[in-house]
Specification:
alpha+beta, 5-stranded mixed β-sheet, two-stranded antiparallel ribbon
Length: about 70
């Protein structure tokens, strides 16, 4: 599994923006489809909200292939 640390400014980032910012999704529409397809997990739980808030310290798993660890800048 590919693991990557993602630095964010501020307290949180929304899931759709995180997926685009990290390069996992090319567009917001693609990010939304990934959530709808059920392949995104936040701290081990399936994500159903496209604009779910992701905070520093959270771990996002994409289809058990990519793990994004959120850190502060």
């Amino acid at each position: 599994m590919q693991k990557e640390q993602i630095e964010i400014k501020g307290e949180f980032i929304t899931m759709d923006k995180l997926l685009k910012f990290s390069g996992v999704a090319a567009t917001g529409g693609q990010a939304f489809m990934m959530v709808e397809d059920g392949i995104i997990k936040l701290n081990g739980k399936a994500v159903t909200e496209k604009r779910k808030k992701v905070f520093v310290g959270d771990v996002v798993n994409i289809d058990n292939q990519i793990e994004l660890i959120i850190i502060s800048e």
